[in-house]
Amino acid sequence: MIGNLPFVACMVLIALGLWTLVFKRNLIKLVIGIGLIESGVNLFLVALGYVRGGVPPIYTYAPAGAPMVLPTPQALTLTSIVIGLATTALMLAFAVVIYRHKGTLDARKIRDLRG
Amino acid sequence: MGAHIPILAIAVPLLGGFATPLLAKLHRRLRDLWALLVVLFVGACVGYVAVHVFAQGLWVYVLGARSPQETLAPGGFPIRIMLVVDGMSAFMGIIAGLLALVAFPFALKFLPEEEGKNLALTLGLLLLAGILGMAYTGDLFNFFVFLEVTSIAACALIGYRTWTSRAPEAAFKTMLLYSLSGLLFLLAVALLYGEYGALNLAYLSAQLRGSRVDRLALALFLGALAMKAAAAPVHFWAPDAYGEAPAAQTLLLVVNTQVSLYGLWRVLFTLYGGVWDAGLGWLVVAMGLLTLVVAAFMALLQTDLGRLVAYGAVSQIGYMMLGVGVGLATLAGRPDYGLVALKGGVFHMLNDALTVGLLFLCVGAVEWATGTRDLRELGGLGHGLPEVALCFLLASLALAGIPPLNGFASKILIYEGSFRLSPILTAIAVLASILLLAVYARAFQGAFLGPRAEVPRRVPAVFLLAMAVLAVGIVVLGLVPGFFLEGVVTPAAEALWRGRAQYLAAVLGG
């Protein structure tokens, strides 16, 4: 049971993120919602690659016969974090520009593009 | 050299994109020339790949090894990144190359130098690289990375004109949806990795057993890609995005939605082809019908020419989903009419690229000439801009599926196939087409007919040339559809219809 805790944590993070996207109207909070989902997915990836009692996957240093944690999910997670940085930065930049134009971050009041 | 063409088609626009602002520091002409050369090179590459694939079958390109068999780890496990180009990927590459070849010369003239022309050209090339990456890759994580490349490039392209108030708003909305779509996709990839320990599409496809985790992953894939392909009910970002991006670059956004749709076909037919379920086909059909009806009705309400055309573009996504969905729903018995509908859906992707591309170029030309897109202010442009008026009329008729234009050639196949599955589907699709015809007739009348109006700026020759290329394509595809159906569409549709076994064999050997 305790071994599944990381997976429960990811799902909680993803659910919180979705809840934020659906119910919050502040643009910054929407970006935070995306950030939460992203953390959940990244945590899920890293947790997948963990092997109980595993050592870091470096062949030259590992004791013979010891189980290693999977290296691929870590590489995937790194890539995903970098991509997440770019998307978050871009969204925040747009939020700044919108605030300059409209003087508000409330999505309900920004309605040039309805319909 | 020839052996590396598929990866060059992705790498060169990537390099070209990042080199563009540097070259602009030297000389603007040099940058324009560079962008043109890069696009020409990409066009040549996708053409070469397509000819090769249509003639000799699947092309598997492995990064860092000569053949896929060299990369198999002991359990028959492909460990390197590879590009797998089958008929459908090559077809998607042609569409991307064609629209890029038209969009870039147009954009070089259309984009004002002081309004971020460097940015638009750079982002356009990056978007092109991402699109081709999505079309050619045979690895799910790679697909995710290219998906995010297109997301970031596309949203920056929509919102880079930060001095307008609407563009950043459209970009924020789109970025939110794109990010969510990317994360759902990554979660699905992670689920499959957790279960099978691989990311290679062919290997995963061979391993999939249809367990509960696989189904959950499929639902996530479907949601993510439908969201990015602007299928209803998650289409609402598309009109904003298409409406606010500069007209020339909108063509690339259209390809971007199509390539997401291509990703959906890849997941449904190749990845999940072994654990296929008829309900899935019906789901795609239902989403397609919803998309085309909702978008046609929303187009009725628009007063902005750009947004009106954008809703028309969204409704065409519905036709593609309808055609391919019918093919998917009948995959069990593989009856002839299923293949007919599938061919229609695939053919419609090419036709949509031409017609919607031409409509957006017309919108760009109108905006260039008059400085506005508001239908309430426009009128009487037919006297001053007869060529643009003619192109708009041609594209509108093609979009509504009037014979003998290309839209008819593909829609008739979709109608024929879907009618055999259920006549109700066809009836709804035909009604939506008629509605679209009404919408475009109104737009044409509003913008181009009426008393002679002042046209402040002449439309440059390169605009007309770009539009003429697409217009000729529309007419030719409509008059001799058989030639293109046999040569280009059939290999693409067959790749989805029966190609899964070959796809798996080409990558995994045996």
Overview of the molecule:
The complex is a heterodimer of chains A (115) and B (510). Chain A has a single domain, classed as Orthogonal Bundle (Helix Hairpins). Chain A has 3 helices and no strands. In chain A, 63% of the residues lie in helices and 0% in strands. With 510 residues, chain B is mostly helical. Chain B has a domain at 277-479. In chain B, a hairpin with a 3-residue loop joins strand 2 (72-73) and strand 3 (77-78). In chain B, helix 4 runs antiparallel to helix 5 (140-159). The longest helix of chain B is centred in the last third of the chain and has 35 residues, at 336-370.
**Topology of chain B as a string of helices (H) and strands (E):** HHEEEEHHHHHHHHHHHHHHHHHH
Q: Estimate nothing, just give the exact number of structural domains of chain A.
A: 1
Major sheet: arrangement of strands of chain B = 1-4
- Main beta sheet of chain B, described? 2 strands, antiparallel
- CATH topology description of chain A: Helix Hairpins
The proportion of residues forming helix of chain B, as a percent range, comes to: over 70%
Greatest interface (CB-CB under 8 A), with counts per chain: A-B, 32 and 37 residues
CATH class of chain A: Mainly Alpha
- Global Rg of chain A: 19 Å
Strand content of chain B: under 5%
The outline of chain B comes out as: globular
Shape of chain A: elongated
Largest sheet, strands/sense/barrel of chain A: none
DSSP strand (E) fraction of chain A? Answer: under 5%
By secondary-structure content and strand pairing, the structural class of chain A works out as mainly alpha
SSE layout and pairing:
The complex is a heterodimer of chains A (115) and B (510).
Chain A: H1 5-23, H2 27-48, H3 71-102
Helix pairs in contact in A: 1-2, 2-3
Chain B: H1 5-26, H2 28-56, E1 59-62, E2 72-73, E3 77-78, E4 82-85, H3 87-110, H4 117-136, H5 140-159, H6 166-196, H7 201-207, H8 212-228, H9 237-244, H10 247-271, H11 278-300, H12 305-329, H13 336-370, H14 381-384, H15 386-400, H16 406-421, H17 423-448, H18 461-479, H19 481-497, H20 500-508
Antiparallel strand pairs in B: 1-4, 2-3
Helix pairs in contact in B: 1-2, 1-4, 2-3, 3-4, 3-10, 3-13, 3-18, 3-19, 4-5, 4-10, 5-6, 5-10, 6-8, 6-9, 7-20, 8-10, 9-10, 9-12, 10-12, 10-13, 11-12, 11-17, 12-13, 12-16, 12-17, 13-15, 13-16, 13-18, 13-19, 15-17, 15-18, 16-17, 16-18
